[in-house]
Amino acid sequence: MTSSKISLTRTSPHRPPADHLRLQSENPISWVEMVDGRRLWVLTRLADVRAMLGDSRLSSDRRDPRHPNHMPYMAPDRRQQLIEMDAPDHTRVRRAILGEFTVQRVNSWRPRIQEIVDEAVDAMLAGPSEVDLVEALSLPVPSKVISEMLGVPYADHEFFQECSADFSRPTATPEQRGAAIGRLKSYISDLVQEKIKSPGDDLLSRQLAAGVDPEGVEEMGFLLLIAGHETTANMISLSVATLLDKRGHLATLLDNPELMAGAVEELLRYFTIAEIGAARLATEDLEIGGVQIKAGEGVLALTNTANRDPSVFPDPDEIDFTRMARNHLSFGFGPHVCLGQNLARLELEVVLATLLRRVPALRLTSPFDELSFKEDGPTYGIHELMVAW
Ligand code: HEM
Prior knowledge:
By secondary structure, this protein is an alpha+beta fold. It has helices at 18-26, 46-53, 89-98, 103-107, 110-126, 133-138, 140-150, 157-168, 174-197, 203-209, 214-245, 247-255, 260-271, 303-306, 341-358, and strands at 3-6, 29-34, 39-43, 58-59, 130-132, 279-282, 286-288, 291-293, 298-301, 363-364, 386-388. Helix content is 47%, strand content 10%. The strands form three sheets. Strands 1-2-3-9-6-4 form a six-stranded mixed beta sheet, sandwiched between helices. It has a three-stranded antiparallel beta sheet with strand order 5-11-10. The chain has a two-stranded antiparallel sheet with strand order 7-8. The longest helix has 32 residues, at 214-245. Protoporphyrin IX containing FE is lined by residues 60, 82-83, 94, 146, 223-224, 227-228, 231-232, 235, 273-274, 277-278, 330-332, 336, 338-340, 343-344. The site of protoporphyrin IX containing FE (HEM) has 25 residues, from helix 11 and helix 15.
């Protein structure tokens, strides 16, 4: 068993941390000490990560203090969310919501998403010709889309943004995180009571009609808001910033709009913003990639590094819109693979295509490498993205 000390903090938006890449080439499955002193297995190759995320002997249940994602502020008796359930509960709850996020169902939202993006761009163009794109577009678009899907009045979107920011801010204390969760949960709880009294044509009402108990519907509503908001916003900001920085890629996309889906996929692979979620706890002894993992040991997939696995992605540090790398791990893999991946792809596609078409003069006001990146949060992203046209 080898041991070295690693940090999850990224030092560049363009590459995974150097010590993660070193592990991939020298010791792809390593027993490491994290900077907080905990020890766990880290996996850095794509094939090993897929084996791990597809293995039902590795648990997502964070209530166990040995789980890498266990947080001491979590009340032990609280109801679990989908993302931290294991089979058979996970299978049952996921099956009840899956129909809301199929490609077909999500595509039926395309016209409304286009309107939402157009409205945000209209508002942006009506003001001064320099804005923070995070505030103008990246945060409001996914917030409005998921709010409408759930049946949440848009008037409350600022409230969600504030709570989400309080929840995910790296410097937030456990009390601040707990308070943000409390505010959101109590709002959603009231909303679900409203839906019981007067159901609408929305996701929460349909979950109730399908027989999911009100508490379960509340948990799902809360998870969808948290899981889909900042993640999608971060990917929008990083993607726009990259296209404005790498003008060659922008020109390729303008000349070949049919490459948009490939561009979205490649940008998802390149930034792999949500690797911290891919952590599990071994419930039995098992083997991955020839390495023995014992029951009770934590395992973390460094998906950002695995998405640069040169045996799967030739020239992995290059952005290539024709790569068609749908086998990347940016949405995870296996039973917990991102429920909202079709929605996230669609939102990214619509936002990027709309900006290219409607604001061709868009430019960054400072060099890409000087942007303020979210280095310590649960998802990678950009705090502020000043653009002009
Ligand atoms: C670019 C945007 C997004 C990224 C990068 C992302 C990433 C991920 C990843 C890596 C996982 C797997 C976690 C694990 O294995 O433990 C996940 C799960 C999940 N995501 Fe996303 N996500 C995004 C957008 C969304 C959206 C838009 C929604 C919904 C509105 C959403 C809802 C969920 C849910 C509910 C799960 C839990 C699924 C389960 O446990 O069965 N995500 N996401």
